Amino acid sequence: MEVSFGSIYEQFEKVTQEFSDRPALIYLGQKYTYSQLREAAETLAAGLHNLGVARDDKAILYLPNCPQWVMAWLALLQIGAVAIPISPIYTPIDLQYMANDSGAETIFCLDTNFGYVAQALPETGLKRAIITNVAELLPWWKRFIGLGFNKIPKGKFAFGESIFSLKKLLRSGRISSLPPLETKSEEMFEMLYTGGTTGLPKGVPYSNIVFLESVAEQRSMSVNYIPKGEDRVIQGGPLFHILGQAMGLGALLSGDTLILLPRVNLDGLLDHVQRHRALTLFGVPAMYRMILEHDRVDYYDLSSLEYCFSGGDVLPIEVAERWLKKFGKPLYQGYGTTETCGRVSLTPMGEDAPVGSAGKITPLQRVKLVDSESLQPVTSDEPGELLVSSEHMVRACWNKPEETARCFLEMDGRLWYRTGDVVSIDKDGWLFYLDRSVDTVKHKGYRVAASEVETVLQEHHAVIASCVVGIPDEKVGERIKAFVVLRKDVKGVSAYDLIRWCREKLAPYKVPQYVEFRDMLPKSKVGKLLRREIRSEERKRFEKGE
Fold first, then answer.
1. Cα angle 237, 199, 96; round to 5
2. What pLDDT shows up at residue 380?
3. CB contact at 8 A, 197 and 223
4. For the domain that residue 489 is a member of, what is the CATH number?
5. CA-based nearest residue to 55, from 186, 180, 165, 175
6. Which distant-in-sequence residues (6+ apart) come within 8 Å of 474 by Cβ?
7. CA 134, CA 69: separation in Å to the nearest integer?
8. Residue-by-residue DSSP string for 22-79
9. What is the pLDDT of residues 146-205, one digit of tens each?
10. What pLDDT sits at residue 143?
11. Which residues lie below 8 Å from residue 486, measured CB to CB, with a gap of 6+?
12. Neighbours of 80 (CB within 10 A)
């Protein structure tokens, strides 16, 4: 993909001209060619313009994966407005905060989550809500069957002065009414929200060129084996997350076909791989573990898959090994952050990555490893906190100068983003993720990577999930405590058994001193383990002397 164009929409226009009749989207069996998708997006853009949505206005996408999400995103691009994709399961409190923080005036939502929007509207500057249903663009007979079998969720709402139907906008907009738009590559087009150190999400603004470079590098990993315009990518992650955007929206900017599902249901996912002969699958490590352990996985033909990408979290070695053994295809890993627009390191298709590697540093990124406290560079053979820089990069957090000062720093005449992650990088550029610097347990003077202990625990046949934190101790600094979720069908596994397991695989100072069993572990709305919540619980217990 060329990245010299001024805007993402110009890139979309280019691939539409080249692949006009190729399917751009497949959603529950319904296909949209590139020309159909462009026409729908431009019609919607005209409708939004007539409602008063203008250049630089902010619009929240409070939708699941569906064609309407993509059409709205493209329509906002053409107007020059700024898209703010968020999770469709966020609460009214989340919604109110993000609407006010971003200054959004428009929101796209489902009829099923409009109730949350209605609660938040009076406390925000939102002027209009555009409502849709997950199935309303499907053929009538599919909607009839879905409603008849109670498979299509529906919510109650009433159209009013500020409540509009997306479907009607798709019918009423006149493309000729759109004003001409010139977009510069450095202009902001989107903002994603991610966790902040204050406990409140922080907005990460993207420019057109930052996003184009990201999806170009992501697509380059498989292009030598799957040419542009020939891939069929199944959306294994949410479109409001940078992983889902780099892979899913990147497919649409490369002329490939994107297969959408409204939510990740394993049987539905595997059926779509088989039915549409998907070539590329992506998702977080937990998804691949779930597929391997799904009791009906062998009912499906997954032989079409060529490129399976894992990102968003650390991929346990045992999951990678089991996947390769079962399907004969490797799981290609990558590492990135929302603030770097994904891709810091990626594994090129066809290359044998070192065991445990999270990919090779990509060409457009510069990296530096430093001591987290002194910020002095570490020696070449030592791990350190990862700093990332590039010519085109996110340069600040939205509306949060304190977060910006903490996350970005000037060094050696360049701006660097502090990832907060401790990694090592070998002489060939392969990155090995060790831990979040804030999640490193300090025990007897040693720095113990919590994720390393968690990985070992999860290799035990009885363990589904684990979380490791440091418990304050005056003698040794911190003691290592593991929180573990066991499989329901496993009996008789004790804390001693798991500690003994760790002793066989870890250096003595890395072995947990305590193990606590739980029914579940806290996770964020995008599925990431929330160590900070458990750490906070334990600190409070320590302060109370429990």
1. 75
2. 80
3. no
4. 3.30.300.30
5. 180
6. none
7. 10
8. SEEEEETTEEEEHHHHHHHHHHHHHHHHHHT--TT-EEEEE--SSHHHHHHHHHHHHH
9. 665 566 666 666 677 889 999 999 987 666 667 778 888 899 999 999 876 555 789 999
10. 62
11. 462, 463, 464, 493, 517
12. 21
CA atoms of 400 and 421, how far apart (whole Å): 21
Of 17, 80, 12, 19, the C-alpha closest to 45 is 80
Q: φ and ψ at 203, to 5 degrees? A: -80, 135
CA distance 73 to 59: 9
The secondary structure of residue 376, as a DSSP letter, is P
Domain assignment present for 539 = yes
**End-to-end alpha-carbon separation of the chain, Å?**
58
Question: Backbone dihedral region of 320: left (phi > 0), alpha (psi from -120 to 50 degrees) or beta?
Answer: alpha
- Domain membership of residue 297 (yes or no) is no
Residue 134's pLDDT is what?
A: 87
Helix (H) or strand (E) holding 268: helix 266-276
> Domain range spanning residue 455?
444-543
Query: DSSP readout, 117-171?
Result: HHHHGGGS---EEEEE-TTTTS-HHHHHHHHHTT-S--------SSEEEHHHHHH
Cα(429)–Cα(335) distance, rounded to whole angstroms? 13
* Counted domains in the chain: 1
Q: Which of 126, 22, 116 has the alpha carbon at shortest distance from 63?
A: 116
Q: Which two tokens stand for residue 299?
A: 């009912």
Classify strands 202-207 and 163-165 as parallel, antiparallel or unpaired. unpaired
Angle CA 536–541–544, to nearest 5: 125
Residue 43 has pLDDT above 70, yes or no: yes
Please tell me which residue, 67 or 136, carries the higher pLDDT value: 67
Contact partners, residue 43, CB within 8 Å, separation at least 6 = 169, 170, 171, 173, 174, 175
The chain-wide mean pLDDT, for the chain, equals 90
Has residue 15 got a pLDDT over 90? yes
Residue 370 lies in a domain: no
pTM for the complete prediction?
A: 0.84
Percent of the chain with pLDDT over 90: 69
Distance of CA 277 to the CA centre of its chain: 24
Q: Which of the 8 DSSP states describes residue 277?
A: T
Q: What is the pLDDT of residues 253-288, one digit of tens each?
A: 999 999 999 887 899 999 999 999 999 999 988 899
Distance CA 253, CA 433 (A): 30
For 522-539, give the secondary structure using H, E and C. CECCCCCECHHHHHHHHH
Single out the residue of 459, 462, 455, 510 nearest to residue 485, CA to CA. 462
How many beta carbons lie within 10 A of that of residue 109, not counting itself? 25
In a domain, 121, yes or no: no
Determine contact, residues 248/293, Cβ cutoff 8 Å.
no
H-helix or E-strand containing 515?
Answer: strand 514-517
Q: What angle do CA 387, 330, 239 make, to 5 degrees?
A: 60
The angle formed by the CA atoms of residues 240, 241 and 242, to the nearest 5 degrees, is 125
